[in-house]
Amino acid sequence: MLIENALSGLIILVAITTFSYSLGIIALLSSLVGTIAAKIGGAEEQIIKRGLFGYNSVLTGMALNLFLTGPYHWIIALVAAAMAAFLTAAILHVMKDSEIPVLTFPFIILTWFTLLTSYHLNVFHISSDLVPQDLSRSELDITGIINWSEVPFNGIGQIFFIHSTLSGILLFIAVFLAGWKLGLYAVFGNAIAMLTSYFLGGGSYPINLGLYGYNAILAILAVSIVFKTAQNRFALFSGIIASCLTVPLTASVTTWLLPYGLPALTMPFVLSTWLFLGARKVLKNL
């Protein structure tokens, strides 16, 4: 979640476990697997301590544990968690000259490709929830009621694939413990996503589940705080625009992936954040 705080990490794990014991266990094991893989591989200790290898492993393990079924899905999830550390290292090397952060890109690519193997390798069994859809038959439902009291907590929860008011509250507490500014911006980013998706005519179901919120939260934290420098005078404004941008990006990436039955994951966050961090190499004030 772009924060480096041990207590916050513990609370995040509690929030995940509160929603699902199995998700909590796989999150912990995936973190250990990713960290051990990085240590054995000889990664710099400073990078390991910052959790740069752990978070992609955690998200990969959790995603595959959720989106795969069958007797081997736990094993596949943990092997993929280790592979996420290797892929993170590879992309770190490829992108080091650009000075653009890897973010969650390794998790996204590895998860998508692993899920797609299920159509040709029988050991992999994709969840029945991920059904390829015909775009010509896809319909947008905007008639439902928006539950504004739950959407904020579902928004932050979806970072870790959870939708629960209690877990969402715990996640907000974790962010505020890491820094009041981080917490405030997380709330702000969530609100931006809620309003943007509503006024752009987003479907009530994805809005209620928080599917437009989590990418916006991550984008504003990354652009306005985590990767901000003294030169970036308009960092808050850039973060707001980046958050707003994640909403149409979420809609477009989701549409692009419908024929494959794949989830958008955090790709909208990555695209929006890369856009602004890349632009800053030329437009220093952003």
From TrEMBL:
<keyword id="KW-0812">Transmembrane</keyword>
<feature type="transmembrane region" description="Helical">
    <location>
        <begin position="102"/>
        <end position="121"/>
    </location>
</feature>
<dbReference type="InterPro" id="IPR004937">
    <property type="entry name" value="Urea_transporter"/>
</dbReference>
<keyword id="KW-1003">Cell membrane</keyword>
<dbReference type="GO" id="GO:0005886">
    <property type="term" value="C:plasma membrane"/>
</dbReference>
<feature type="transmembrane region" description="Helical">
    <location>
        <begin position="156"/>
        <end position="177"/>
    </location>
</feature>
<comment type="similarity">
    <text>Belongs to the urea transporter family.</text>
</comment>
<keyword id="KW-0472">Membrane</keyword>
<feature type="transmembrane region" description="Helical">
    <location>
        <begin position="6"/>
        <end position="30"/>
    </location>
</feature>
<dbReference type="InterPro" id="IPR029020">
    <property type="entry name" value="Ammonium/urea_transptr"/>
</dbReference>
<feature type="transmembrane region" description="Helical">
    <location>
        <begin position="257"/>
        <end position="277"/>
    </location>
</feature>
<dbReference type="Pfam" id="PF03253">
    <property type="entry name" value="UT"/>
</dbReference>
<feature type="site" description="Important for channel permeability">
    <location>
        <position position="266"/>
    </location>
</feature>
<keyword id="KW-1133">Transmembrane helix</keyword>
<feature type="transmembrane region" description="Helical">
    <location>
        <begin position="74"/>
        <end position="95"/>
    </location>
</feature>
<feature type="transmembrane region" description="Helical">
    <location>
        <begin position="51"/>
        <end position="68"/>
    </location>
</feature>
<protein>
    <submittedName>
        <fullName>Urea transporter</fullName>
    </submittedName>
</protein>
<feature type="transmembrane region" description="Helical">
    <location>
        <begin position="207"/>
        <end position="227"/>
    </location>
</feature>
<feature type="transmembrane region" description="Helical">
    <location>
        <begin position="234"/>
        <end position="251"/>
    </location>
</feature>
<feature type="transmembrane region" description="Helical">
    <location>
        <begin position="184"/>
        <end position="201"/>
    </location>
</feature>
<dbReference type="GO" id="GO:0015204">
    <property type="term" value="F:urea transmembrane transporter activity"/>
</dbReference>
